[in-house]
Amino acid sequence: MDRARSHTGTNDRVALAFELFNASVQHWLDLAGIFVFALSGALLGVRKNLDVFGMAVLAEATALGGGLFRDVVIGAVPPAAFADLGYFLTPLVATLLVFFLHPEVERINKAVNFFDAAGLGLFCVVGTTKAYEYGLGLTASGALGLATAAGGGVLRDILAGDPPQLLRWDRDLYAVPAIVGAGAVALLIHAGELTGVTAGGAAALAFVLRLAAMRYHWRAPRAWQRRSTAVGEG
Amino acid sequence: MDRARSHTGTNDRVALAFELFNASVQHWLDLAGIFVFALSGALLGVRKNLDVFGMAVLAEATALGGGLFRDVVIGAVPPAAFADLGYFLTPLVATLLVFFLHPEVERINKAVNFFDAAGLGLFCVVGTTKAYEYGLGLTASGALGLATAAGGGVLRDILAGDPPQLLRWDRDLYAVPAIVGAGAVALLIHAGELTGVTAGGAAALAFVLRLAAMRYHWRAPRAWQRRSTAVGEG
Amino acid sequence: MDRARSHTGTNDRVALAFELFNASVQHWLDLAGIFVFALSGALLGVRKNLDVFGMAVLAEATALGGGLFRDVVIGAVPPAAFADLGYFLTPLVATLLVFFLHPEVERINKAVNFFDAAGLGLFCVVGTTKAYEYGLGLTASGALGLATAAGGGVLRDILAGDPPQLLRWDRDLYAVPAIVGAGAVALLIHAGELTGVTAGGAAALAFVLRLAAMRYHWRAPRAWQRRSTAVGEG
């Protein structure tokens, strides 16, 4: 806490941005992001045939895992996930919703993906800003922004026994939009231009990129000369 | 440390309970809980055909993983797992025992389950109390009590490459007894009635519930209308 | 930081060793260890058919995961992995190299194993020393030295969906050389004989043991009377 505040004192432009961005609007955006991430966790729980408690664990891990990792790394303890009751309860609400209405939730899978993209954009911006607040460098802050946005999904997949979707080449780009958003925030901080408006623009950029990646099935390249390993491994 | 102490100063009733509960009896109970959790880790190592070092890693992770997670989250560093030599050495003793005598240990599997239930009850109470000591809210403290009790088993299963038993619907209730025990402690703190005796009662409640869940094969419900997903996924 | 410094003040012999060992040579050794660990992560990414971002995630996790775990446990936040830009960028360089040249890198797999053994020796010594610096006991410091050296590989395998190689009985000894190296450092600290030279000796000892384990296919024993479980499980 003291550490965060003293940093805030010395970095007025970040403090300003953080303030603008952290108002009650920010809190509701956070909860919305947590909610849609939790939906994806609870839905995976249904597909994996878990009981309601397993669904709740997946929902909590998906929604809060990325921010928890960031907070532990930057020394913001207790992490926001355990300091704000709403952060903890929102995934439970999402779990109940999926528990009773999951065919309907599956049917609006497109809507879930839409909000998941919004959460991705939001969390990469929030994560980068918070890490910088706590004194990390710009590159490290961007890396933690990516971890905030994508870490929960990785934890979800590991707990469910799936290979993390983030790592699979046959999925539409997920990391790149978050990297672009986090990188944009880092550049804005560097240029002294981070405000609520520009931060929102960075989040929107990541959001639109993710929507485009899903729409046009953008993929990332795999290592060159893949055939050679087929021989090497055979 | 300072943080913990100042909290203790302002929460005399918790301090009292913690003191009562944290005497040498508490230490021996802790070691007993660690020992039985470690047995379950080492036994899984045998079933997974791991060597003696793999068994020791699983034993340590099972016994100490939950408390380690709690301590990192609440900022109690170095965690108890690394601050108390007995906590670290106990899983190694359990590993040696299983290494030389595992058919006998398997045969007393019922006894291991019995002590595992005792460990579950104990750890959910200790975890909730310690998290509250470090300034977390009652709900967050209860969640960390559950994480203390069940986290080690989740880590054990992930390291061994199994889907976490905690999440599987076809296993007898494990999370619910810990949730009840942790919730009871949170209510006792809220009512100002947490003493060594009532804390012991909460641990006993979780213990008995877990024994009953195993005896009567209590299961948790899965999401409603499961059939619909069979169609949806097909 | 303050905590570390005050410990340094009271443990002059460690401070001396740490200083000797932490010069610019140390930094380059660290980067070399990170680089070869990252190569092994990126190569596994190629074998698992991941795209370039998945490769980078595996490379970062393999190279930095062990030290990250150690730093979070001892309270050294932000961890070195996020405080030193070189630590973060080196795995990305390794990823690019593997991305474009992986058949060549595979061909020099023996060289990678050689450097991986060097990284193992180096990291178990650095990890043990740093944990002691932060006030942990000798046994706990040794355990964290082992975690520093082997933790990244465990994280790599879990992310990739493989059972951790560290735990498998059919792989050449990996933990034992690190345990010997970390134990040697702990004994040297206890005897007041830890200097840059003796620390280098401990690293060399672990390095040579790992090379010998690969050369002669040393394995660790599994639990006695394995047959009995075959019956018990059947």
From TrEMBL, chains A, B, C:
Q: Does the keyword Transmembrane apply?
A: yes
Origin superkingdom? Bacteria
Transit peptide in keyword set: no
Query: Known InterPro entries for this protein?
Result: Gly_transporter
An example GO CC term for this entry is: plasma membrane
- Record domain Glycine transporter: where: 28-102, 114-188
Q: State the annotated membrane topology for this chain.
A: Multi-pass membrane protein
Q: What is its main location?
A: membrane
Q: Give compartment(s).
A: Cell membrane
Q: Which keywords does the record carry? A: Cell membrane, Membrane, Transmembrane, Transmembrane helix
* Transmembrane regions: 28-45, 52-69, 81-101, 138-161, 173-191
Question: Mind telling me which Pfam families this protein's record contains?
Answer: Gly_transporter
Family to which this protein belongs = Belongs to the UPF0126 family.
**What is the protein name stated in its UniProt record?**
Glycine transporter domain-containing protein
What organism does this protein naturally occur in? Streptomyces smaragdinus
